[in-house]
Amino acid sequence: MEAGTVTVTAYVKATRTVVHDVALTLELSAALASDPNLVRRHIEDLNPGALSAACTDETVDRVTDVALLHVSSIDVVTDGVNRDAD
Fold it and tell me: Could you tell me the pTM of the whole model?
């Protein structure tokens, strides 16, 4: 391949970790509420939808990382012609 600049488009799947600062208000029995370990276990066992609903754009604390999951395909354009590289 000759030297120079080539345009490459990579189609990828990536994940981003977002940390939310959320305050959950829960209705618990007095017995459960009296033991912080039981409360913690109750929160850990919550339906993921409950936490998902609490995580909004307003509760974003920070983005911690981005990770590449998969490179689906790569297109290389040379001389105006798209050449599938994968």
Answer: 0.59
